[in-house]
Amino acid sequence: MDKLLALRMFIETVDASGFSAAARAIGVATSSVTRMVDALETELGTVLLNRSTRQISVTEAGAAYYERGRAILEAVAEADAQVADRGDQPIGLLRVCMPVAFGRCVVAPHLQRLLARHPGLEVDVTLSDEISNLLSERIDVSIRLGSTLHSDDIVSRTIGHFQRWLVVSPDYLRAHPTPLLPIDLLQHECLRFNYGTTRQNWSLRGGGEDLQLEIRGRLKSNNADLLREAALAGAGVALLADWLVGPDVSSGRLIRLLGQYEVNPGQAQTSINALYLPNHRGSTRVSAFIDFLQEVLASAT
User: Fold this and answer.
1) Greatest Cα-to-Cα distance within the chain, rounded to the nearest angstrom
2) What CA–CA distance (Å, rounded) separates 37 from 11?
3) Which domains does the chain have, with CATH numbers?
4) What is the per-residue pLDDT for 83?
5) Is the separation of the CB atoms in 11 and 73 below 8 Å?
6) In the prediction, which pLDDT does 159 show?
7) Cα gap 250→184, rounded to integer Å
8) Cα 169–Cα 171–Cα 172 angle in degrees, nearest 5
9) Residues of the chain with pLDDT under 50
10) How far is CA 191 from CA 97, 155, 223, 265, in A?
11) Residue 86's pLDDT is what?
C-alpha cells in the first residue's frame, strides 16, 4: 500500500465529507478511495470513519489521525516547494501577511497581475494589524509599515516609503475653524489610532519647527479604515497614510491640513518593509512577491 497516497485519500474524504466527493477532488474512482481507506484502517487496526448509507463521520481515533496526517502532508508539500523554490520560476504556495488596510487598498487590486505573471504560484494572504511570528505561523513574507526591524533572526528589507497626512472633511471644517498652525490641533477632535497607550503625541516637523503635540479626542480605534470612515463622516481630524486617503483628498471628500509639515505619531518611521526568515534568502517565491510589490508601490507614487 502507498501509505502517503492512502493518507491523502483519507484526508480528502474527511474534508469532502464523503468518498465520492474525495474521489472527484483527487481524480480517481470512488472504489479506489474506499479501498485505500479500508486498507489504511486494516493496517492501523482501528476504525477511522463511521459509515452510513447517507454520510460518514470521523471517529475519535480518526480525528487524531486526521490532524497528524494533515500536518505530514503539509510538511511534504512544503519540502517539495522548498526544493522547487530555487528554480527559475516561482512554484508552490507563498504565505504572506500584511496590515489590513494596506492589503485591501494597495495590494489586493493588483494581485491578479502577480498570479497571471507566475502561473505556478499560489498565494495565501493573511490581513492582520498584529505582529506575526514568521516561524510559528509559517509566514513566508510579512509586510510591515514603520520602523525597520534589526535582528539576526529576521531579514528586513525596505521596499518603499509612504507619508502620513492630516485630513478632515469639509463638513467638519464648516463647523470648526481651520487649523492653520500645529498648535491649533489641540483645540480639535483628533481621531486617534489605538497603540495601546492612554496618551498620544503627534510629531510635526517643518518650517524650522519640531513639535510634539499631545492630541486629544473621544474616538480611537486599532483600525485605520474605521478612522478614515469617521473622518469622512465629519468626526474630526485624522492622521492617516497617503495610500489610504489619497483618493479622498483628490476627490475633495477629505481636505489635507498643514501639508508643509511632516507628520507622524510619536517617533514612528515611514518605511514599508518586507520581513522574512534567513533561510528564505534566494527564494524565488519571496523574490517574485517583493519585486511585484515594489512595482505596485512605484506606480502609486
Assistant:
1) 80
2) 10
3) 3-84 (1.10.10.10), 92-158+274-300 (3.40.190.10), 164-265 (3.40.190.290)
4) 64
5) yes
6) 94
7) 24
8) 70
9) none
10) 26, 34, 11, 12
11) 60
Distance CA 132, CA 195 (A): 16
pLDDT at 207: 80
Q: Which three cell numbers stand for residue 99?
A: 496590515
**Amino acid identity at 241:** A
- Contacts of residues 208-215 at CB distance under 8 Å and 24 or more positions apart, as own/partner, are 209/182, 209/261, 211/182, 211/183, 212/266, 213/182, 213/183, 213/185, 213/186, 214/186, 215/185, 215/186, 215/190
Residue 225 has phi, psi (to 5 degrees) of -60, -40
- pLDDT tens-digit readout, 144-183: 998 766 677 899 999 999 999 999 999 999 999 999 999 9
**Degrees to nearest 5, angle at CA 248 with 244 and 252:** 160
- At residue 129, the pLDDT reads 87
Residue 199 has what pLDDT? 83
- Three cell numbers written together for 181: 498652525
| pLDDT score recorded for residue 108 | 97
pLDDT in tens, 88-102: 788 889 999 999 999
pLDDT of residue 247: 95
Write out the chain in H/E/C secondary structure: CCHHHHHHHHHHHHHHCCHHHHHHHHCCCHHHHHHHHHHHHHHHCCCCEEECCCCEEECHHHHHHHHHHHHHHHHHHHHHHHHHCCCCCCCEEEEEEECHHHHHHHHHHHHHHHHHHCCCEEEEEEECCCCCCCCCCCCCEEEEEECCCCCCCCEEEEEEECCEEEEECHHHHHHCCCCCCHHHHHHCCEEEECCCCCCCEEEEEECCEEEEEECCCCCEECCHHHHHHHHHCCCCEEEEEHHHHHHHHHHCCCEEECCCCEEEECCCCCEEEEEECHHHCCCHHHHHHHHHHHHHHHHHC
User: Cell 518593509 belongs to which residue?
Assistant: 273
